[in-house]
């Protein structure tokens, strides 16, 4: 079995140069890099990652706990994370927890046993038991996305959910809508409550209030948007506009309207949240609030790698700002 010394000898470079090429730890000239890669291929060299990790106390691996990778928002965040990990020479271990505590515990234990260099956690369902488990491993650098609350042991990156919801409802009000209903996520979630606060803020600016009967609880999945829309369409009088707290629920609601023979936006207007890729391909293209997903994932993993490389960095929280994206699912009543 070939060794790193054999590769260096075949390529005519030093062992440290081979190491820098394979581990992306320092810039090496294109000529030397090509010679190393050719020698690796010719000798069929495979580095002993276990021995290396023990020697340098680093596995070049990042673990990521995701609420569900099936949700388009989460999937697009993961794309940003994976691209940067590849660029920086890190492997990404993606664990889909489905909000189930036993799976959260199992995957977290597994990631610690594999000695990941850092941990990313994505999702708004971080309950007290999971928070306590993460705190136990606070010696491992962590970044949490879309948590909705502060944290004293991990970097936190949130979107400004309250401002985003205010933008959405302001847009509906500016188009002349006054009879507005909301399809929310689970009401127990901090992010849902923040978006409800944003709805109330925008309505209050016009002297309006949000009544309980204007709130239809969903779960951030398409089916719940479909089901909620069926109940909304049965109301008398029918509201003129619906604000869904994420795009999958908005698209599910549009589908329910289409099946009932109700046209969006001619008969009822719809606005979503997140601006997932499918939003611009829905029928009609969905007006929504852009939550910068790939950028969010990139920012998170950049912060994590910085903390991995400099353990003295203090934890910090930051908020990314949402943006209104106007397409064709909202009708002007003016």
UniProtKB/TrEMBL annotation:
<dbReference type="InterPro" id="IPR046335">
    <property type="entry name" value="LacI/GalR-like_sensor"/>
</dbReference>
<dbReference type="Pfam" id="PF00356">
    <property type="entry name" value="LacI"/>
</dbReference>
<feature type="domain" description="HTH lacI-type">
    <location>
        <begin position="2"/>
        <end position="56"/>
    </location>
</feature>
<dbReference type="GO" id="GO:0000976">
    <property type="term" value="F:transcription cis-regulatory region binding"/>
</dbReference>
<dbReference type="GO" id="GO:0003700">
    <property type="term" value="F:DNA-binding transcription factor activity"/>
</dbReference>
<dbReference type="InterPro" id="IPR010982">
    <property type="entry name" value="Lambda_DNA-bd_dom_sf"/>
</dbReference>
<dbReference type="InterPro" id="IPR028082">
    <property type="entry name" value="Peripla_BP_I"/>
</dbReference>
<protein>
    <recommendedName>
        <fullName>HTH lacI-type domain-containing protein</fullName>
    </recommendedName>
</protein>
<keyword id="KW-0238">DNA-binding</keyword>
<keyword id="KW-0804">Transcription</keyword>
<keyword id="KW-0805">Transcription regulation</keyword>
<keyword id="KW-0678">Repressor</keyword>
<dbReference type="InterPro" id="IPR000843">
    <property type="entry name" value="HTH_LacI"/>
</dbReference>
<dbReference type="InterPro" id="IPR057343">
    <property type="entry name" value="PurR_sensor_dom"/>
</dbReference>
<dbReference type="Pfam" id="PF13377">
    <property type="entry name" value="Peripla_BP_3"/>
</dbReference>
């Amino acid at each position: 079995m070939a060794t790193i010394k054999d590769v260096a000898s075949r390529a005519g470079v030093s062992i440290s140069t081979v190491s820098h090429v394979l581990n992306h730890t320092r810039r090496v000239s294109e000529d030397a890099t090509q010679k190393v890669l050719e020698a690796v291929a010719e000798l069929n060299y495979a580095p002993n990652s276990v021995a290396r990790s023990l020697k340098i106390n680093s596995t070049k691996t990042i673990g990521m706990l995701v609420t569900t990778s099936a949700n388009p928002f989460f999937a697009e965040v993961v794309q940003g994370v994976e691209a940067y990990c590849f660029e920086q020479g890190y492997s990404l271990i993606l664990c889909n927890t489905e909000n189930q505590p036993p799976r959260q515990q199992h995957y977290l234990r597994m990631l610690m046993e594999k000695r990941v260099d850092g941990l990313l956690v994505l999702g708004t369902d971080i309950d007290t038991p999971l928070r306590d488990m993460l705190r136990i491993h606070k010696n491992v650098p962590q970044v949490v996305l879309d948590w909705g609350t502060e944290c004293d042991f991990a970097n936190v990156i949130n979107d400004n959910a309250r401002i985003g919801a205010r933008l959405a409802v302001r847009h509906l009000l500016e188009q002349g809508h006054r009879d507005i209903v909301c399809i929310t996520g689970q009401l127990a979630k901090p992010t849902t409550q923040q978006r409800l606060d944003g709805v109330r803020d925008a309505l209050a600016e016009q002297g309006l209030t949000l009544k309980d009967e204007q709130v239809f609880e969903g779960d951030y999945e398409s089916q719940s948007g479909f089901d909620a829309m069926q109940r909304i369409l049965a109301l008398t009088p029918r509201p003129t506009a619906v604000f869904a707290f994420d795009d999958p629920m908005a698209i599910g609601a549009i589908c329910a309207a289409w099946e009932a023979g109700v046209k969006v936006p001619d008969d009822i207007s719809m606005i979503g949240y997140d601006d997932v890729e499918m939003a611009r391909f829905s029928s009609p293209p969905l007006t929504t609030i852009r939550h910068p997903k790939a950028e969010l994932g990139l920012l998170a993993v950049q912060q994590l790698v910085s903390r991995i490389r400099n353990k003295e960095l203090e934890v910090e929280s930051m908020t990314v700002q949402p943006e209104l994206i106007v397409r064709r699912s909202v009708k002007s009543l003016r």
